[in-house]
C-alpha cells in the first residue's frame, strides 16, 4: 500500500564524519525515519560509483553518500574525488534516462547530529514521493 | 598556414617512401604500422626494422584490427622504447594512447607520430566477410568517399561517420587525406611539430605552405556533426530508462569482448572479471525472493553501467566495442553519447593534450555544488 511505503536507503557513510554524525544523532535520540542501512567506509573517496550502482540496481530506493565537509576530509582530499565520481555517475544515469534523483551526496560532520537527522528526513521524504525503486521488480537485469 | 611536405606519389606510396627512407637513413629504429598479412585483405599492426618490409605496409588500410593506442601502451608499459619509432596511427588511436599514458600505462617518448585526416574504417564484419583487398570494390569505394565529402564514406562504421575528431591533436605529421582529390598522384604531409619538421628534413619532395582547415574539411566536419546528431536522435539513449537498458543489453552474452578490446579498459584485474562480480548463493536467494525470478547470469546492465562510469570520461569513440560485439549491441554509440555528456561536465576531451589531467585524478576545491544536497 502506497501510504505505508518506508523507503530503503543505503547510506555510505564516512567513518570520520558522517558515521560519527549518524551515531551522535542516534545517541542524542533525534527522531528520524528508520530508512537507512548504513555502510561504514573509511572515506567518501572510497565509494566507487560501482558500489552506488550496485545498491541502486539491487533495489535500494535511495542511495546516500555522505562524508566530511569539503576541506575537512580526514585524508585531506578524499571527498573532492568523491564529488567528481558522484557527479560522473549521476551524469551517466541521467543520460541513460535513469532516476538519478535517487542518489544523494551530502556533507555531515561528526558533531552535526541534527544535520544528519535533517538529511535523512528530507531524503526519505523525497524518496517517498518518488515511490519504490521500480528496478526491484525487474527480473532481466 | 602549415608547413607541408609534398611528395609526387600516391599517398600510400608516398608514406611508404618516407618510412623507407627513415629506416635506410637510420633516422628511426623501427616503424609501427598496419602491415599486410596476406593477399585477401588481412592486416595487422606490426613493428618492423627491415626497410625491405616497408613494401607490405598499408598505412591507411580502412580497418582497425586493434586500437593502436592499446598496442603502443603494451610496447612501452615498463619504459620507453630505445630508438625512435615512427608510428602510423589513426587520430582516435593516438588519443587512446595519450589517455593511457596519462594513466601511466605507457610512454610517448621516442615516438614520431604520423597520423592522418581520417576517413574512418569499415566494420570488422565488413572487413572480414566482404572482400577488402586493395583491388576490391570496397577499397575503391572507400577512397572515393575520402576524396568527396558528398559521398561521406557511405559504408564506414556509424561511429566513424559521426566522428568530428578526424584531425589528430598531437601528431608530429598529418597525412592530408580527407577532401584531397589528388591523393592518387600526390602525398601531402603537414609537419605539425619541430620534431616532424626535423624528421622530414632532407626528404624527397617539395616543401610548401598550406591551410589545413580548408573548405573540404569544413564540409566533412559539418556532415559528421550532422550525422552524430542523427545517430544520437535515432538511438534515443536518453529515453532508455531501465526498460530500455534491459531491452538493449538483453541480448548481451557476457563475453566481455567489449571491455577486452577497449583501449581505455586497461585494468588487468577488472572487477567485472573478478570473484567480486559473482553473486553468492545467498544473494541469489534474496534477489529471487524480492523479484520472483532473476536472469542468470545476472548483472548485465550493471556491467555496462559500471563500464560507462569507469571509462566514459576517457572514451575516444574508436568504435571497437561495437565492432567486436557478437550480439550487435550499438555499444560505441551509447559510450560516445554517455561519454560526451560526462566529458562535458569537466570540459574534457580525452586524449587531446597529455598535460591535461584526467578529471578523476584531480579536482577543484570549489565546484559541482549542484550535485551536493
Ligand atoms: S561484447 Fe557484446 S555480448 Fe560481449 S559483453 Fe560486450 S555487450 Fe555483451
Ligand atoms: S568504450 Fe568503445 S568506443 Fe570507447 S574507447 Fe572503448 S572501445 Fe573505443
Ligand atoms: S574521511 Fe570523511 S570524507 Fe574523507
List keywords for this structure.
heterodimer; A: 141 residues; alpha/beta; Rossmann fold; four-stranded parallel beta sheet; 4 strands; globular; B: 373 residues; 14 helices; 38% helix; 11% strand; binds iron/sulfur cluster; binds FE2/S2 (inorganic) cluster
Write a compact overview of the structure shown.
The complex is a heterodimer of chains A (141) and B (373). With 141 residues, chain A is an alpha/beta fold. Chain A has four helices and four strands.
Kindly describe this structure.
Chain A has helices at 18-27, 49-57, 78-95, 113-130, and strands spanning 9-14, 36-41, 62-67, 103-107. Chain A is α/β, with parallel strands linked by helices and 141 residues long. Chain A contains 4 helices and 4 strands, in the order βαβαβαβα. In chain A, strand 3, helix 3 and strand 4 (103-107) form a beta-alpha-beta unit. Chain A has one domain: 3-Layer(aba) Sandwich (Rossmann fold). Helix content of chain B is 38%, strand content 11%. In chain B, helix 3 (91-102) links the parallel strand 4 and strand 5 (111-116). The interface between A and B is large, with 43 and 47 residues. One iron/sulfur cluster is lined by residues 252-258, 324-327, 329, 331 of chain B. One iron/sulfur cluster binds at residues 252-258, 324-327, 329, 331 of chain B.
List the helices and strands and how they pair.
The complex is a heterodimer of chains A (141) and B (373).
Chain A: E1 9-14, H1 18-27, E2 36-41, H2 49-57, E3 62-67, H3 78-95, E4 103-107, H4 113-130
Chain B: E1 2-7, H1 11-24, E2 30-36, E3 43-48, H2 68-75, E4 85-88, H3 91-102, E5 111-116, H4 124-129, H5 137-147, H6 158-161, E6 173-175, E7 187-191, H7 194-200, E8 206-210, H8 215-235, H9 241-249, H10 257-261, H11 281-291, H12 300-311, H13 320-324, H14 331-345
Parallel strand pairs in B: 2-4, 4-5, 5-6
Antiparallel strand pairs in B: 1-7, 1-8, 2-3, 6-7
Helix pairs in contact in B: 2-3
The structure holds iron/sulfur cluster (2 copies) and FE2/S2 (inorganic) cluster (FES).
